């Protein structure tokens, strides 16, 4: 999991609110990359893993403010990793 971060507000080098009084978001786009390796992985495994990400405590804490879809890559899969 990675996210772009501008430390300017954290370090008090920029205001915490914009001109309208709204909080400034110091974070950029969230990226969630999941790499899974194994023999005989198939579409059912892929679907299970995609659904399981939503049950992750860390993912659930971070994504309400920064929505994203995880990028899942299977290695050693019995069908292409982008096949569903």
Question: Can you give a write-up of this model?
Answer:
There is one protein chain. The protein is of the alpha+beta class and 84 residues long. It has a domain at 31-84. The chain contains two helices and four strands; from the N terminus they run βββααβ. It has helices at 43-53, 57-62, and strands at residues 2-5, 27-31, 33-41, 71-77. The strands form two sheets. Strands 1-2 form a two-stranded antiparallel sheet. The longest helix is centred in the middle third of the chain and has 11 residues, at 43-53. It is elongated.
What's the layout of helices and strands?
Elements: E1 2-5, E2 27-31, E3 33-41, H1 43-53, H2 57-62, E4 71-77
Parallel strand pairs: 3-4
Antiparallel strand pairs: 1-2
Features:
2 helices, alpha+beta, two-stranded antiparallel ribbon, 84 residues, two-stranded parallel sheet
The gist of it:
The chain is built from two helices and four strands, in the order E-E-E-H-H-E. It is an alpha+beta fold and 84 residues long. It has a two-stranded antiparallel ribbon with strand order 1-2. The protein has a two-stranded parallel ribbon with strand order 3-4.
SSE order, one letter for each helix or strand: EEEHHE
Determine the mean pLDDT: 77
Shape, principal axes of CA atoms: elongated
User: What Rg is obtained from the alpha carbons, in whole angstroms?
Assistant: 18 Å
Distance N to C terminus:
23 Å
Structural class: alpha+beta
Low-confidence stretches: none
Strand content: 25-35%
**Largest sheet at a glance?**
2 strands, antiparallel
Q: Work out the helix count.
A: 2
Number of strands: 4
Widest beta sheet: strand line-up = 1-2
Q: What's the helical proportion of residues? A: 10-25%
